[in-house]
Hints:
The chain is an alpha+beta fold. It has three domains: 2-213, no CATH class; 235-303, Single alpha-helices involved in coiled-coils or other helix-helix interfaces; 311-442, 2-Layer Sandwich (Heat Shock Protein 90), CATH 3.30.565.10. Helices cover 70% and strands 9% of the residues. It has ten helices and six strands. The chain has helices at 2-56, 62-89, 107-116, 118-161, 177-213, 217-273, 275-303, 306-322, 340-361, 395-405, and strands at residues 328-333, 366-373, 376-383, 410-414, 421-428, 439-442. Strands 4-5-3-2-1-6 form a six-stranded mixed β-sheet, with helices on one face. Helix 2 crosses helix 3, helix 6 (217-273) crosses helix 10 (395-405) and helix 9 (340-361) packs antiparallel against helix 10. The longest helix is centred in the middle third of the chain and has 57 residues, at 217-273. The radius of gyration is 35 Å and the shape is elongated.
Amino acid sequence: MVEIHRYGHSLEDTVSELLRTYGRRALTCLFRAILQIVMAFAVNLPLFILAVLSVAFIPLGVGVVLTPVVFQAIRTVADQQRAWAAEWSAVTIPVPYRPEPAGAAGPLRRLGRLLADPASWRDLLWTILNVPVALVLGVLAGGLAVYGLEGVLLAPWLALISDYGWGPFWPVEDWGAAGIAGSVVLGAALVVVGGPVGPFFLKAHALFGQSLLAPTRAALAARVEQLAESRSETVDASAAELRRIERDLHDGAQARLVALSMNIGLAEEMMKHDPEMAAKLLAEARESSGTALTELRDLVRGIHPPVLAERGLDGAVRALALTLPLPVDMHIDLPGRPEAPVESAAYFAVAEMLANVVKHSGARRAWLQIEHSGGRLIMIIGDDGTGGADPAAGSGMRGIERRLAAFDGTMAVTSPPGGPTVVTMELPCALSSPRTSPSSGTA
């Protein structure tokens, strides 16, 4: 008897837990469905109307300022939909927007970039189509279970005390024991079906959003082609870098070490017969060893500077600026450190640009700004030189583009004749090891 009591108590707990779990899932699904409907009617529909009006007002001048604001609001709502789709239905919707260049841009240029992005118009189409789709799928996602609960808990008892009837299945005058039983049975069936089916309709809504808010196949194909090209360029750049290292070792440190070995061998032979000559050979060997050590250190710094590993991008760039023959105004605001490969790519890109300033610009002063914003490392290098820098004509800038492209980075050059030259480089990355205070100054 004790065992039966324990088994019955365990079964009761199990059923109770199942009911609680089912109830939580049903309520969660209902809440999400209602949220989607409210978002569609209270946010999407007004934004669509504002977007249409703002575009229509562009010739009047008002739309030039209003349209970017409205479309940015639509992007914010679309990003929220992407987050919900991933969290609620495990549907990933990549962001398709073209990256915006760093720095301030005029209203007309900003408007032109926004309207030229196909993703902006797909967002606008989703904004209006989401209104009926969210309503239908939201009602199906949350309404079945609610309607079933109404049939189980409310309709039968209201029918006993009023003229209330539940649906077209049992008219009021036919209600009785059979009507109440039918209401309970059908309502329970809707509750049982509505619970598991609700997430299915939520996922259908997420897939609908994915069809409009994700990048198109043409965009994905272009992206794949771009990545293939950048990978090929990165492989070529890596092979060229390896050849440079081999050449520097062969022509520099290796040749000096061979000469060092020969001098030491000759000194050993001359030690008994001509000590003075042996001493001269040993002195030359000592000098050659020091030169070889210096060349090896320079080679190591060219691969990965120790100061970069020890002090990060901030400290390494500052140490580099101190070696330049012209003053460099710097503002560096990095609340952490990028991953080592990204940090190395950023350092060498800055180093190459500063070397170009010294060699080719004729500048008397340069400035440098490095900051992290919106998940991107932004580096801006400028000088007051003669201008006329062309990435297509210089292998140095082309090499920087290849180095940045390997990390999905970009580079933009503004260099009119007469100057100034401003180079903006961006690298998508996350930072770690946060710190609190930005740094600035002049080197």
